[in-house]
Write a structure and sequence with these properties.
The complex is a heterodimer.
Chain A (H helix, E strand, L loop, with lengths): L1 H26 L6 E2 L4 E3 L4 E2 L9 E6 L5 H17 L6 E5 L11 H11 L5 E3 L6 H4 L3 E2 L1 E8 L2 E8 L15 H10 L13 E3 L3
Parallel strand pairs in A: 4-5, 5-6
Antiparallel strand pairs in A: 1-9, 2-3, 2-6, 4-8, 7-10, 8-9
Chain B lengths: L1 H17 L7 E5 L2 E6 L1 H5 L9 E7 L4 H16 L5 E7 L6 H12 L4 E5 L8 H4 L6 E2 L1 E6 L2 E5 L5 H12 L2
Parallel strand pairs in B: 2-5, 3-4, 4-5
Antiparallel strand pairs in B: 1-2, 3-7, 7-8
The chains are: A alpha+beta, B alpha/beta.
């Protein structure tokens, strides 16, 4: 009888945790949620966490990768974002969420190559084991999360696209990420908190 | 009498409206292969055809590895269920400048028989939710619809999975 009880409890616990896990994987963060910190390997082989940045006001976390044409189309704009906002307290933190066993062009070694070719000015981290992106709820590359650093933690203030035109930078009308960070810098409410863009599905 | 005139006018207007010809913004051509390019307004008409046909609409691009992998399954299903009023439409999201150099040669090389159209509407935030509220924007993505009944899938398919989802619609 006791054995049965134990078996039952294990089963129930297993089921509950399975569902909880699923929920986390499929939903991810919404604006207002507290974002998790992480410890991921950078292209200089050092580990990077958000908490390493002492004097910042927040972060522009971008899930991106080497192979995706949409991500490639945005590389120069990501560098520009970092150059503009790092000194204002919002550095870019790029994370490659893809599993190189599924997409070999997104290997850690090739991340180093791409970062050097393009002259990335920001950390380019590898989500080894694909553990961080599901917590954020990223589904594609590029996928941006603007976080504001507060006493309560890093709060998600914007989720979505960098701007409204991936094919032609000169035809961009609305710069979503810049508008969000500009508002935060002025202690104002972000007006467009969420946008959607086409991107490459994350290869897990 | 007045009422009758009104009804006739309404009917005529409806017919004209439903036949509103959607012009592609550009037609690409290479060695006998043509692909029409639409903005979202034009593309949307392909999602609203109420002719008892089951449409399987797949968003893809030539550079998208999981899309290319599942393409033969869409081709296969299209052939197998042709007589059952099933039609495949492949919506390419290739960059406009790549249509002539990548998309058209790809269609020729792979001998695609399904209809291929191209979507050129960079402001994706304005139309992604019009395709489906639940779509994050990742590709591949697929819609199976018949008249007002639609199902949306942000995922990759195997042949069997695709056939199973089609049969759900077919057996309704």
């Amino acid at each position: 009888m006791k054995a049965l009880k134990i078996v039952l409890s294990v089963l129930v616990f297993g089921l509950v945790s399975a569902f909880t896990f699923n929920r986390v994987v499929t939903s991810g963060y919404e604006v207002g949620d507290k974002a998790t910190d992480f410890k991921l390997k950078n292209i200089d082989d050092k580990m990077v966490s958000l908490s390493d940045y002492k004097d910042v006001k927040g972060y522009i976390v971008i899930f991106t990768c080497n192979h995706c044409p949409f991500a490639i189309a945005y590389e120069d704009r990501i560098i520009a974002l970092d150059k503009k906002y790092k000194k204002l307290g919002y550095p870019v933190i790029a994370i490659n969420p893809n599993n190189p066993e599924v997409q070999e062009k997104d290997s850690f070694e090739l991340m180093k190559v791409r970062a050097k070719e393009k002259g990335f000015t920001f950390p380019y981290l590898f989500d080894e084991g694909q553990k961080i992106y599901p917590q954020y709820g990223a589904t594609k590359t590029p996928h941006v999360y603007v976080l504001k650093k507060t006493k309560e933690g890093n709060i998600v203030k914007y989720i979505g696209a960098i701007d409204d035109n991936h094919t032609d930078e000169t035809a961009v009308k609305v710069k979503y990420v810049e508008n969000a960070v500009d508002a935060l810098l002025k202690n104002k409410e972000v007006s467009v908190k969420m946008t959607k863009a086409i991107g490459c599905s994350i290869k897990a | 009498m007045k009422k009758l005139i009104f009804i006739v006018c309404l009917l005529v207007a409806t017919v004209i409206y439903s036949q509103k010809n959607v012009q592609p913004i550009k037609v690409y051509e290479l060695e006998g292969i043509t692909v029409s390019s639409y903005d979202f307004e034009g593309l949307e008409t392909f999602f609203k055809q109420k002719d008892d046909t089951i449409y399987i609409i797949n968003f893809w691009a030539t550079w998208c590895a999981p899309c290319i992998k599942e393409l033969p399954y869409f081709e296969g299903i299209g052939k197998k269920y042709k007589e059952k009023n099933v039609k495949i439409i492949l919506v390419s999201l290739d960059f406009p400048k790549k249509v002539e150099t990548s998309l058209l040669p790809f269609i020729k090389r792979k001998k695609l028989v399904s209809d291929v159209i191209h979507l050129n509407d960079p402001d994706a935030n304005s139309w992604i939710e019009k395709v489906n509220k639940g779509w994050s924007g990742a590709i591949p993505a697929t819609i199976i619809y018949k008249n007002d009944d639609a199902a949306f899938y942000e995922q990759s398919f195997t042949y069997e999975e695709l056939e199973k989802e089609l049969l759900k619609m077919l057996n309704k």
